[in-house]
Amino acid sequence: MTAAQKNAIDAFVESFGLDTLIYLIADEITPITMKGVVRKNLALQNKTNEEIELFLSSENFSQMIVSAKARMLEGIKANKLKSYMQYSKLNPSEFAAYAEFNATEYGAKFLKTTINLLGNMLQSLISETRVRFRAGVEKQKEVEKS
Amino acid sequence: MRLLVTLIAFTSFLFSQQDNEINNELVQNLIQVSGVEEQIQDLPSSILPSLNQALEFVEAEAFGEQRQSEIEDSVFQMTIEEYRSNLSEAEMLLVIDWYQTPLGKKIVKIENLEDEM
After folding, report:
1. Chain-chain contact of A32 with B54 (C-beta, under 8 angstroms)
2. Which residues on chain A are in Cβ contact (under 8 Å) with B43?
3. Would you list the domain boundaries of chain A?
4. ipTM of this predicted structure
């Protein structure tokens, strides 16, 4: 693959908004999952809810999330690699024709709608997960109190 | 006069219903030929297991089969509405035409293959 082709794919993937979707997952899902894992582990170590909450609001835990997000962002690189493999199946003229389609008013609208749609779906699933997660945490606190 | 107004209202209602149906059919065609249908159908089943895993850690209520099925239905409806409100019929026809070209078909094929990778 030539450098020009690689640059074109880079710009293309960015225009797709795929990176934004992965960032969204990294930003929203990683903290939820991390909190779940840490809660479970600390509970297994017989830590009280107060101790668990203290840890979750600590700088130490914030750093754990930062590292986890960094690992997730590695996924973006892997995703781009997949895209290189995927779009390198197109010959240069096909690739140019696809880019041309995406640059038309109707092509761009279609692309933008598709990306927004996927983003909205993810946001909606994440919001519902957050509500369920909080309900689970509250229930655990009540059980511990009683 | 009253009858005339009622008739006009009824006729425009019929026409708007017809437009709506044509549009609905068009959107379904659009999401099918562009491969979007396949992609959105797979979204809940591919993401819910990891969300359920996070919920399991706090023993929270997981997304069950019934909820997943409701989500799949709403995702489909959301898709129809989203395209209908963002693209005109003429634009949908242009996109459909493009995806029916050999290159359009090739794109759908390789993009769906990537999802399976």
Report:
1. yes
2. 118, 121
3. 3-141
4. 0.76
